[in-house]
Amino acid sequence: xNEQTSEAMGQVNRALLTDAERVYLELERLPDAALDxxxxxGLEQGRKxxxxxxxxxxxxxxxxxxxxxxxxxxxxxxxSPAFAAMVRDIPGxxxxxxxxxxxxxxxxxxxxxxxxxxxLSLEKDNYKFTVxxxxxxxxxLVILYTAEGxxxxxxxxxxxxxxxxxxxxxxxxxxxSSHYRGSDSDDGKVPVHDYLDILMADGVPMPESIQFSLLxxxxxxxxxxxxxxxxxxxTKESIVLEKAFEVEGQxxxxxxxxxxxxxxxxxxEADPNNKKRANHIINMVLVxxxxxxxxxxxxxxxxxxxxxxxxxxxxxxxxxxxxLVADGLHLSEKNQSITVDTDKxxxxxxxxxxxxxxxxxxNSEGDVLEFxxxxxxxxxxxxxxxxxxxxxxxxxxxxxxxxxxxxxGVRWNAGDNKAIYSYKIPKADYEQxxxxxxxxxxxxxxxxxxxxxx
Length: 454
Fold this sequence. Notes:
Blueprint: H1 3-29, H2 32-41, H3 43-47, E1 51-53, H4 60-76, H5 81-88, H6 97-100, H7 104-111, E2 116-124, E3 127-136, E4 140-148, E5 161-165, E6 173-181, E7 192-200, E8 209-216, E9 219-226, E10 237-247, E11 250-259, E12 264-270, E13 276-282, E14 285-288, E15 293-294, E16 296-301, E17 306-311, E18 322-333, E19 337-341, E20 346-349, E21 355-362, E22 366-373, E23 393-395, E24 401-403, E25 406-411, E26 419-426, E27 434-437, E28 444-452
């Protein structure tokens, strides 16, 4: 880091001593109604962001909703103009203020110089790809990069990318992408400042190096870079908890907490003897002894039987105590199903008659079935339900089993009390009716949860 950059970084650090506190306060002041509205109204925007999972058992709907919330929080959290101006003066960090200001873990990391500057660029055929730097610990890798070129402008929504480890192998992780359009330059080009937020799968170590490729125009540009593990050596804290809690007669355990500079990871497990299925924990946050809150927007699993959630980290402010608090649980009955006749387009039975077959689109490969889930209230709409198991099995009247071909997601509009789920089934001579086992279904109980983590 040169002298000019070092001095500028020092100014940012001093500004952040007060600015980080402002971010915490803004988060704490956000009204629940505003957050709920942001989640519902921003789902379509969030759906445009890239979400990738290597293991199919992970809940993509959970992560999509969480990503939407994370993106919408950025609109509410404000960073001081002085801080923004100083960061823009630091070579390589210009344009990233708008991306990171909603994440107090990243703000705190930069405040403490927990960043690895790279400034690696590749130019070809009027395109320029630059990896400005990374922020990394044992579980999370954030890559800050910029793309420029003739067809990159204010309408650019996303740029296709590939992430591989140093040996060219898959990186087992969930990858979240968000971008911010830069200011017009003198030559009329509009750079896109972006970051990839890479959350390593449970038990998967952080790679020693990364191969990062970006599709610009009709060509792939690739930049390889190392990850300095020495920077986060001995920063991980593991706490065995094994703390049981109960909600409406259902039993659960918080198994473990892992604290790193960029996140706090909690692992939950549901008792297999529970009579009801737990789908998610409602409004859970970590709270420290000073009342600062650390939200969760990402995670793995569907609470059947385990769930892993990643919370923002207060690593650099060194909280003495952390308590998990929540408002209740999304719960539904087990062993539910819906029976439909896809020839006559009739729903024969479904739980509480909330789920109906409403449309069928046929093509040469199979049929896309649309199911409408109605009667949803505000709390129901907070969770994107996985109605049927991903590529799971359904049966016809003769008992013959078939497998789903694909799931085309869920759509709804803010203010609606219904959602549409689309699934593709193979073309076959079915003996009607067909029966689909339900994986997750609306239902919840509001019952306060409070568990000491640290």
